[in-house]
Structures are given as structure tokens and as C-alpha cells.
Amino acid sequence: MITTIPNIITMFRIATVPVLILLLHDQFYGWAFLIFLIAGISDGLDGFIAKRFDMASELGAILDPLADKALIFSSYLMLMILGDLPFWLFLTVVFRDVLILVGSLIYVAFNGKVKMAPSYLSKLNTFMQISLVVAILAQKTFDLNYNSFTNYLIYATFITTILSGVHYVWVWVVKEEIEMVDGVKEEQNAPKSGGPD
Asked: Which of 34, 54, 149, 173 has its CA at a distance of 20 to 30 angstroms from the CA of residue 189?
């Protein structure tokens, strides 16, 4: 149901994406920093309300990660174009998300459903990706000089992006095959009933 408070907050976060793109395009880093910060706070707020007041929904489980991806992708794209973010990191983030999207579609094709709950590693990756944008925008807004810290964040984000992508491959491919093999073994080892004593 779209009219729940968490879903309305999520839709608001999606609505901030084109505003953020325009602000970054015109290099209004201060306003972009404020909008991104508000959007980031809304991400935690909608999740808190959904859990605290039992307002979680299937639509919210779909919209929330989509809103996060739209916000992160647009920020990374614009910061990459402006030269504030390395192209290889942008490419890594996009490749990881495409891998997950294709993997989920294949998983649905064979299993009929896919669990939308993110792993702890995925949550850490999202946190790192958001932290990097906040750090870059804060550096531009307040004319801060912490390039070394930003570089550390860039490499940390790269590592968590790779690890979380590999983890999803493990969950959807390797783990699924192991469970299938274990299921076959259990079926073979199960005692046969109905035969002569």
C-alpha cells in the first residue's frame, strides 16, 4: 500500500533524485549536500517507522532499495562527470548492481521468487557508498582539505562493493546448488516405506 508513512517518505526520497542531479549539474554543492543529507536521513527514518509501528509492506521492500540505488547512482554519475569521483569506481558500482539485477531475474526464472532482504554486507556497502558522497559534498561545500580521508573511503567503498557482489553470487548460485545437492542426498538416504518386512 503506497499511502503508508514509510512508503510516502520513500517516494519523497525518489523525488529528490532529479533535484540532486540539477544541483550537481550546476555545481551547487552546498544545496546538493543538504538535499543528499535529508534524503539519507529519510532512508533511516522510513525503515525505523516501518519496523517500530509494523508498517512494513512488500511495496516498501521494493521501493526502498530502488530509491537508494537511484539516489546513489545519480550522485555517483554526476560526481564522476564533474571529476570528483574516479570512473573505475562508478563502473564497479554499476557493474555490481547490474550483476545483482540479472542474478535476481535468473533466480526468479528458476525459483519463482527472490528474497529482497539485504545482507549485512550489502547494508555496509550502501553505508560506505553514501558516506563517500557525503564526504565529497562536505569537502566541496565547506572547502575542507581531507583528500587522504576521501581516498581511503574510495578504496573502502570499492572493496565493500566487490565483496557484497560476490556474496550475492554465493547466495544465489553456489549456496542454492549446495542446498539442492543436500536435498538429493537426504532423499536418497530416506528410508523407503511400504516394502516387504
From this structure: 173
Q: What is the mean pLDDT of residues 114-124?
A: 76
Regarding predicted confidence, which is higher, 46 or 106?
46
What's the number of domains the chain is made of?
1
CATH number for the domain spanning 139: value is: 1.20.120.1760
The answer on pLDDT for 105 being more than 50 is: yes
Contact 114, 107 (CB under 8 A): yes
- Asked whether the whole model's pTM tops 0.70, one would answer yes
The set of residues, in sequence order, having a beta carbon less than 8 Å from that of 71 and lying 6+ positions away, is 13, 14, 16, 17, 20, 36, 39
Residue 95 is assigned to a structural domain of this protein: yes
The residue range of the domain holding 63 is 5-183
Q: What pLDDT digit, counting tens, does each position of 77-97 carry?
A: 999 999 999 999 999 999 999
Q: Is residue 195 part of a domain?
A: no
Distance CA 24, CA 77 (A): 10
- Asked if the structure places residue 194 within a domain, the reply is no
